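README: folding subset

This subset contains proteins for which both the sequence and a predicted structure token string are available. Records are stored as plain text. Below is the entry for DUF3810 domain-containing protein (359 residues), shown exactly as it appears on disk.
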Amino acid sequence: MYNIIMRPGRENSSTLLHRLVPLPALLMLLAALSLRVAARTLPGFADRYAEYCNPILVNTLGRLSALLPCSLAELLLLASLPLALLLLWRRRLLRALLYLLPALFLLFELNEDIYFSRTGFASAYQLERGDYSDEELYGVCRELVAEINQYAGLVPRNADGMMQTEEALPARMCSAMQALGQDYPCLSGWYPRPKAVLCSSALSRMDLTGIYSIFTIEANYNRDMPPYNIPFTIAHELSHLKGIMSEKEANFIGYLACRRAPEPDLRYSAAMLGWIYCGNELARRNAALWRRAASTLDIRAEQDLRYNSAFWKTYEGRISETAQTLNDRYLKAEGLSEGTRSYELVVDLIVSYELRNTP
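--- output ---
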């Protein structure tokens, strides 16, 4: 009998790759890359995806997240560090990351990246008018100031005279967005309840009024900021949930949802943010006309604006600058050449809308 020594053969490349990267992780990575390429190269793919897939994702993952009264994204973020330390101690961190990172990449593609390639909200509904004169901008600013003055005395205020919000606001904002969806079908359907961030001071330090969590399909807002910002911000974040990624379009939807609502606090929020954006543009173009418009502003609104300036000034610093720089680079990387300046470009849409709809 011969003694046969079995010599191990070389593993083929596919077996080695499978040992290094688990098959589920490879499949998620492949799916994410396929979606990314399809959205960027196939005409109409992103539009059809938004039309048919967005409602499914919102009504599955969004409804699961909605079961929690607080932000699931915030809880996961708070739990991530101790969980990472535990996995590191048990020498399983690398293995966990091999599953986690492809999963996050896939969720990023499913819930955000694809939508950057869809037809813009303004283009789809032919909302952009083009150039407008200083006088036309002044006319819109004057109407916004009149709207502010009309509702400044109707919104709830505390003992210091500052505007206040109430607990039912998130539910009312979902109703306002659904009402808007009757005229703009891409905004129709169910909305999960927006959630206040428990650690809102972190958002304030980053100069953020709200944030849309793409991994949990949640609209989160800064509960610490001056309250007149909250209705507008909630509607802005809810628009992201429906696949509106352009910041100027999300701002316009925030304005429009509040502008067309019957409640005084929502109308006040729309007018105040509309005045801030349009007023800043008017001041840049024609300071004399801005002073004329601002001279009639209700004293209670002036107080709210002063409080807003003081609030954000306390958080100025390196953290907020870094956060804004990162956001600017991200938006530009996604094809929004204006970066964070795109928020301010909402003026074009507001002016166009008001000139069309004001007698």
